[in-house]
């Protein structure tokens, strides 16, 4: 059983290490060395899943807690990745690629209800809280709480209904990283061209 788990971990690390090898901050690591293979996997994972929190990164890469902490710390010290605290989470990003608002936006897009709200409002800017709650299958108070969080992050204006303050930015982030969110984000991204109008 242990050998099977170890082999699954190696396959996972190799998959993300391949992405890491093509990343802009390629290291000189050799895939033959477990330490370097782990770092290459993190190098691949972070740019393809920006804003992922520590536990998600650790679990997706099948790393131990101490192992993940060690390699993330080394990559941060080397200036290859950076992290930001988001409520109870520490989220990881490729260094120098995102501004503070992008980081906040990605943090909320990594949460199911706020992401669902953003997708609903990108699809229908006039959607009401009740309509969004019905569409997401959650309570109205859950939507109100998520709206408060998005407003505090400067991503939503609640003065007159719900209005995204940065729709183009959010649309870009959803489409670019849809595969790292969920099936709803992928379906949205596949249909996103129909939401963009050009009126010269």
Protein architecture, described:
The chain is mainly alpha-helical. The protein is built from 10 helices and 5 strands; from the N terminus they run H-H-E-H-H-E-E-H-H-H-H-E-E-H-H. The chain has a 3-stranded antiparallel beta sheet, sandwiched between helices. A hairpin with a 5-residue loop joins strand 4 and strand 5. Helix 5 packs across helix 9, helix 7 packs across helix 8 and helix 9 crosses helix 10. The radius of gyration is 19 Å and the shape is elongated. Mean pLDDT is 85; it is low at 19-34.
Order of helices and strands: HHEHHEEHHHHEEHH
Number of extended strands: 5
Number of helices: 10
Principal-axes geometry comes out as elongated
The largest sheet, given as strand count, sense and whether it forms a barrel, is: 3 strands, antiparallel
- Amount of helix: 55-70%
In the sheet with the most strands, the strands line up as 1-3-2
Which structural class do you get from the secondary structure elements?
A: mainly alpha
The portion of residues forming beta strands comes to 5-15%
Cα end-to-end separation: 62 Å
Whole-number mean pLDDT = 85
The Rg value, from CA coordinates, equals: 19 Å
Q: What order do the helices and strands come in, and which of them pair?
A:
Elements: H1 2-22, H2 34-48, E1 52-53, H3 54-60, H4 65-77, E2 81-86, E3 89-94, H5 100-109, H6 112-123, H7 129-136, H8 140-152, E4 156-157, E5 163-164, H9 167-176, H10 183-191
Antiparallel strand pairs: 1-3, 2-3, 4-5
Helix pairs in contact: 1-2, 5-9, 7-8, 9-10
């Amino acid at each position: 059983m242990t050998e099977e788990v170890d082999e699954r971990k190696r396959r996972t690390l190799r998959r993300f290490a391949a992405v890491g090898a093509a990343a802009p901050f390629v290291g000189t690591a050799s895939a033959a060395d477990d330490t370097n293979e782990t770092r290459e996997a993190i190098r691949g994972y972070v740019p393809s899943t920006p804003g992922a929190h520590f536990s998600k990164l650790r679990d997706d890469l099948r790393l131990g807690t101490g192992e993940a902490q060690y390699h993330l710390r080394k990559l941060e010290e080397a200036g290859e990745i950076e992290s930001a605290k988001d409520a109870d989470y520490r989220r990881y990003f490729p260094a120098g690629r995102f501004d503070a608002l992008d980081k906040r936006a990605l943090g909320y897009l990594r949460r199911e209800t706020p992401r669902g709200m953003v997708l609903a409002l990108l699809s229908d800017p006039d959607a009401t809280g009740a309509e969004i709650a019905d569409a997401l299958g959650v309570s109205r108070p859950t939507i109100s709480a998520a709206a408060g969080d998005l407003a505090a992050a400067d991503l939503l204006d609640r003065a007159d209904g719900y209005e995204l303050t940065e729709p183009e930015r959010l649309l870009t982030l959803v489409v670019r990283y849809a595969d790292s969110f969920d099936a709803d984000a992928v379906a949205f991204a596949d249909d996103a061209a129909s939401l963009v109008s050009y009126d010269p």
